[in-house]
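Re: your question from the hallway

Yes, I did run it. Sequences:
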Amino acid sequence: MIPKAFKRSLWVFHINSGSCNGCDIEIIAALTPRYDAERFGIKLVGSPRHADVIAFTGPVTNDMKDKVIRIIEQTPDPKVIVVVGSCGIGGGVFHESYHLAGPIDKLYPNAKYFYVPGCPPRPEAIIQAFAKAWEWLEEVEKK
Amino acid sequence: MKHDYEIAVGPIHPALKEPILLRLTIDGEEIVDVDVIASQNHRGIEWIGMNRNNPIQSLYLAERVCGICNFCHPSNLVMAIEEIADIEVPERAQYIRVIQGELERIHSHLLWAGVAAHEIGFDSLLHYTWMVREKVMDVLEAVNGNRVTKAIIMYGGVRRDIDEEKAKLVRKMCSYYREAFNKLAKLFLEDDTIKKRTREIGILKYEDALKLAAAGPTTRASGVKKDVRQDFPYFAYPDFDVHAITPDELLGYTVGDVYDRIVVRLLEVKQSLEIIEEALNNMPSGDIIAEKKLVKLMAKIKASEGEAVARYEAPRGEDIHYVMLKQGYEPLYSWKIRAPTYINILSWRPMLLGYQIADIPIIAASIDPCLSCTNRFAVVKDGEEKIINADYFHRLSIEKTRRLKK
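Structure:
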């Protein structure tokens, strides 16, 4: 998978929709020298318009709902979203709260989703999810 | 006629911080007014604790108030409920709690130092600092079983012991950091670029720090000698000689700028190492938890009634929880959390006023907010809208660094 994957590098835009920061720091930890996702060309970019994949954390609070959807719509097609952390998948410890609009896959169903369970997941798991997203993107490209 | 621009910064930031909205009024490059709008990260945690959860479940919810300082919030909740329900905590557990709290401080301050380096465009230092930080993450994982959320504290004690084998790992980490500390201090405190970008930038005066009741390293960097561990010691802290660290200890004077905040945090890492080593050497033997059976513990909490306030010196400043229990009512009857960033964001205003747009990232990051600063904002001039994103913002910051280097 690796030699094929080097064909293009994966650019990631990170959206925090109200998470506790636990997953967010693990995403950064995955990029820094110990785990070093940047050796595969995976890097965070500052604009959603440059992104191949979205790293999504948080259970989507009511305040963030419209903003998050606006940002996702700005990314190029096909839209690939890696949901990092249990609260992004189904609310996690915050489920049943009165201020949640999520989870994101219900709010925005027209995208390919990859899930990383854990609260927070380990950096290795996060990198694996991006590798999966990468494989999927390459298959789409072939077709 | 001169007219000011209004810039909305946030709420989505590309790097790592949480959503918040900053509304800045700009005159050219200079910031003339600041307004902060925060509510984007409201998850209704207190409501869940007062309705859905029993107090033991709320411990793990409190951990998720903030993923970075995930020991301080459950600690506060535990301290408050122990006071109400009159639970006696074994000595050894108090020492383990101190070690856990200081491990968290080391990881949080190193994380912050990396972010600060990133904000001024010094990315190689970000990577170096985070590489050094992985050492404490390894120890946290060895001691607690998880890298980030620890799930270690419990009403009446802690859930896992630090035995000799684990203590050896912690000691090894301390000696590793002693060596790394000198290099980090040299990189952060003697580097010309960092000095130019942080000296005399984002000054919070002593009087302002007192007036705004700023907390933690933010207020100590302005010369206010305030530290809960020193003023109102909790856990086993009365046994340790903890004093509030101010920058004049290293430099002989206090300015209250971003550079001073770096100094305070670095010295606090050193102080934490000393506390951990002392705690490991003097750890008493005995039980680590007062009541092992959770059902019995729950019954005891359910039968108690009263209210309590707990204070804890989190890495970012003083954290306060107010808890009220009512007899026969299983969830917390009332729960109020006041996190340190909540009061520290007020000091953004005096810090930002009069400085340049390019300084916003480093000033905003200097209080170590659990929130975000920038991503995309729109400049509206004569009805014409121009969208500027974080790339542009980050570039501005890097350009300023380059300009200063020349």
